[in-house]
């Protein structure tokens, strides 16, 4: 995959439906082996969604030229072993300017901090960018290149802090990742709040439930990569019958060692974690759909509406029907 949403010319001006000139904005996302995929992906998805909305709904051409970049280009592996295709930083023209340059974080940032070619490119490119924004640990990479929030002549800031009411699913900006707030802020300046709200509904993380904090433990730094991988596998397969031995195989551990390590690092047993994943899924389906209770139970791997009702009474003190009604009343009042 080459640069996403590639336009005919990097600095070409195009006309919108009202025949006004619209400047194409170059958006760079700097990646490296071991980068954290979710936050980087949400930034890319926000700009791609903006291009799609403007093009399809208003008859205007795309606004953003989004490029995925790495030191030598080619295939780059995220920390979750998902591969993306990038363009080499040296392939970019030396006089090219980015409206916004996002610098990814992730477990591979320590190795990236020793990549002199990447650091040299950042030193050349950041001063020419209108906005430089670190994603999580990307701040460490910028520090290694000699840039901080107060030095280096580079504008590095927290864009989008003023955004509010982005979505019914995220009524406060604190619930929106900082890097995504930055992307949405740029889009709002260009396309207005209505389009920005539509995009936010598409790309924001799902609304948190009572079980979200437990599930998010798999991203904590004190959780090993093998246990993280097994937890993600349980999340991805929670809707079907699962044997814990399968998750142990994902972690490349014996069953006994896996059970011990998982409980030590995650604070719950694999079986309990799987149950929380399924209950979290049920909560989301109750909030976001009108599916009947029995169908939600089957889709979430719970089995039956009767068993789901027992679990809801045990963990939440209410029935699934009451939970749905209460959450909808809360959403209407916000």
UniProtKB/TrEMBL annotation:
Pfam families, A to Z: HTH_18 (PF12833)
HTH araC/xylS-type domain boundaries: 228-326
Keyword vocabulary terms for this entry: DNA-binding, Plasmid, Transcription, Transcription regulation
UniProt protein name: AraC family transcriptional regulator
């Amino acid at each position: 995959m080459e640069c996403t949403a590639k336009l005919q010319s990097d600095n070409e001006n195009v006309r919108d439906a009202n025949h006004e000139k619209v400047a194409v904005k170059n958006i760079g996302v700097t990646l490296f082996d071991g980068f954290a995929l979710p936050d980087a992906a949400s930034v890319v998805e926000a700009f791609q969604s903006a291009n799609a909305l403007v093009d399809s709904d208003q008859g205007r051409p795309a606004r953003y030229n989004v490029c995925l970049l790495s030191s030598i280009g080619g295939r780059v592996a995220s920390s979750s072993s998902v591969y993306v295709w990038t363009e080499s930083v040296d392939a970019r023209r030396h006089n090219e300017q980015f409206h916004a340059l996002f610098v990814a974080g992730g477990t591979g940032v320590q190795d990236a901090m020793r990549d002199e070619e990447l650091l040299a490119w950042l030193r050349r490119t950041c001063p020419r960018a209108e906005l430089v924004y670190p994603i999580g640990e990307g701040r460490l990479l910028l520090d290694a290149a000699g840039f901080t929030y107060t030095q280096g002549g580079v504008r590095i800031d927290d864009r989008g802090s003023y955004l509010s009411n982005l979505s019914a699913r995220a009524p406060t900006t604190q619930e929106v990742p900082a890097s995504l707030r930055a992307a949405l802020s740029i889009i709002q300046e260009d396309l207005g709040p209505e389009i920005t709200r539509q995009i936010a509904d598409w790309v924001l993380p799902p609304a948190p439930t009572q079980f979200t904090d437990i599930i998010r433990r798999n991203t904590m730094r004190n959780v090993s990569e093998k246990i993280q991988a097994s937890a993600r596998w349980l999340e991805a397969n929670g809707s079907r019958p699962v044997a814990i031995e399968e998750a142990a195989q994902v972690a490349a551990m014996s069953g006994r060692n896996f059970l011990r390590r998982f409980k030590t690092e995650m604070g719950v047993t694999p079986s309990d974690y799987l149950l929380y994943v399924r209950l979290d899924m049920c909560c989301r389906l109750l909030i976001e759909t009108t599916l009947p209770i029995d169908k939600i139970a089957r889709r979430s791997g719970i089995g039956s509406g009767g068993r789901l009702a027992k679990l809801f009474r045990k963990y939440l003190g209410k029935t699934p029907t009451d939970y749905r009604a209460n959450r909808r009343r809360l959403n209407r009042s916000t």
